[in-house]
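Deviations from the work plan: none for this task. Representative record:
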Amino acid sequence: MNRRPLTVGIIANPASGRDVRRLIANAGLFSSTDKVSVIQRLLAAFGATGIEQVLMPTDMIGMAAAVLKNSHSRQARSSHWPALEFLDLTLRQTVEDTRRAARLMAEREVALIAVLGGDGTHKAVAAEVGDIPLLTLSTGTNNAFPELREATSAGLAGGLYASGRIPDAIGLRRNKRLLVCDAGRGLREVALVDVAVSPLRFVGARAISRAQDLAEVFVTFAEPQSIGLSALCGLWLPVSRQAPGGAWMRLDPQSPEALLVPLAPGLLQGCGVLAAGPLEPGVAHGLSLSSGTLALDGEREIEFNAHDRPTVTLDAGGPLSIDVNAVLAYAAQQRLLAIGREHPQHPLNLQEDTPGE
Amino acid sequence: MSTPLTHDQLLHAYQVMRTIRAFEERLHVEFATGEIPGFVHLYAGEEASAAGVMAHLGDDDCIASNHRGHGHCIAKGVDVYGMMAEIYGKKTGVCQGKGGSMHIADFEKGMLGANGIVGAGAPLVVGAALAARLKGTDSVAVVFFGDGGSNEGAVFEAMNMASVWNLPCLFIAENNGYAEATASNWSVACDHIADRAAGFGMPGVTVDGFDFFAVHEAAGAAVERARAGEGPSLIEVKLTRYYGHFEGDAQTYRAPDEVKHFRENQDCLMQFRERTTRAGLLTVEQLDQIDKEVDLLIENAVYKAKSDPKPSAADLLTDVYVSYP
């Protein structure tokens, strides 16, 4: 009688997709309206796969309000959206909102959390939720960690996993991470894709889009087809998501060897390569600069100076994520989306509504 | 894109922000005495926006401001004593005491005027940008408006025309969360003001308005685009105001600890001090010295403004109408 409803969370970063790279590169816009559409596609897919309840944070830009309004629509009823519950948060319009929403969802023991945002948003959620799997969706600018994919199929994969129809060995993927530590400052931050060392002194507008602003890069994985810092390593020393190690590169505009890299959408830059090599797990690396900024997953976040001693360490303790391709391949093989005569979406049940019948 | 700021540029940025803060904090006190005529709308809390944008502009670049214009005027280089006298309605004011807080203008400094009509600065800068284009200079024109102003038709028309004519314009939307007492998350339909740029075919970005360096970097990129003939941009600067919409506003529409939170955690002056000193670029002594100089400047401005004469009846029609020969 008191069985808890099958619950998942959705966290969408209201701020992603509108940073300075619209001015200095050709980055596109991921509008709030688009994010609301993505959330609604997820809700339809979650409804179709038996998810009963969805937790969402409120926000200051009207995404939750739009979803609530649309939850009374005919489309929401016909696709059997799960019940919605909005978390009551005091919003500060910083990354702390995302972190607190993630913590509340972890306390409620959700079966998974769908994350809409860039690498930075995923990193913030991952830091709070332990081994709750993430369903990753890219709504940022230069993303390597979340995949660019259609939310409806991602939602189906997430719903199938969360409703217990997919073995963990097939549906889940353990990710690597980079730890940035400085004991003297009590600093311990996590990156999921890359840590870049920049000579720029201030966090400023956060993005890094010029080769000359890069001195060193550490990556957990690097795919040649990606964009941004992951592409820089991916085009020189590729490392897969599954490989135990990572990679590092040291850069200098004066270096005779250079590589052409898509550092931001529409922005190709020649990067002088000094040296590169594999990054072994568990080994703490010092930095090549004594002062500058550290960009975690593409955004400058930490300013450091001569008296600081930050280190970067790769380990295998990153978050779990849903392997959408593997889940859907398994679903096809097992016919998990086959429906019976009693299912409301069965074509025979829809015929009654056809005009003229 | 941004080049590293020089030592003098860093000191200047701090001096501008500190002057705005001290000017506004003092007005907050003085307005309560009833000695200042009209209304004042204080810019305290938003200083990094004016300082970050204006760091890229010279006297040949025009700006148009809004009702919350003191910060823009100070950052654009308008004389602080002349502003204070203007606000007190004195003959020594930058507009001879006939404009007051909402009409401070100084063409020599490229300050086209604060403006009591919400959104009305936007068409003015389109004109200024067109003038720069026709004269063949590389000047840019910048308008500051708020989240309330972002909903005005005049702002939409100006953005459209600036984009159609590819003019060297910057549209700076200072989103402090409230149009008077109306929350922007309730009243701005597409939620992010920056998103509206797409509808006018120009880039739009959002920056942290508590961080001078973030505003400086984004504004630098937009000014560089405009000077290079690449057209207008929209920058949404997210920030907060420390006081009411106008002085006397009880602010019952805000959470009780809202301002306290921003003052304690994100204040632009606090951040600037901490980060420049930590980086070893400026010293606490240098910054404290600026604080002292600014306090003296404001003290003198208020003292003189209070004792200055008001315009006389004979001044009523001077400086009001243009006299054509």
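The longest strand of chain B covers residues 169-175.
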